[in-house]
Amino acid sequence: MARTTGSTSFVRVSLRELNRVLKENATVVVNRRYVEGLELQCQPFTASKAALAKLIEQGVDAPESKPAPITINMVNFDE
After folding, report:
1. Per residue in 15-39, pLDDT tens?
2. Which residues contact 42 (CB under 8 A, 6 or more apart)?
């Protein structure tokens, strides 16, 4: 499948944004050349829809439940 004109295979995401949505022990799929350039240890990964879906399910830190609503009690000290 050919890419359309102007499309890219890479995007830039800040580490802060990744930390915001991923669990601390999440596995992140990155370009092999990037890992080699930083001399990081890594595990080989074959990208398939099923494999990516599993990584996303394991790594995203979605809220478990909605927080309780905030209640406010008004007190009039002038009375």
Report:
1. 898 888 888 888 787 888 888 888 8
2. 32, 35
Q: Distance between CA atoms of 29 and 34, rounded to whole angstroms?
A: 11
Tokens 């599993």, located at residue: 54
CB atoms within 10 A of CB 27: 14
Tokens found for residue 48:
């398939």
Sign of CA dihedral 4, 10, 44, 61: negative
34, 10 contact by CB (below 8 A):
no
Q: What is the pTM of this model?
A: 0.48
Buried/exposed code over 39-73 (b: 16+ C-beta within 10 A; e: otherwise)? eeeeeeeeeeeeeeeebeeebeeeeeeeeeeeeee
Determine the Cα–Cα distance for residues 24 and 61; give it in Å rounded to an integer: 9
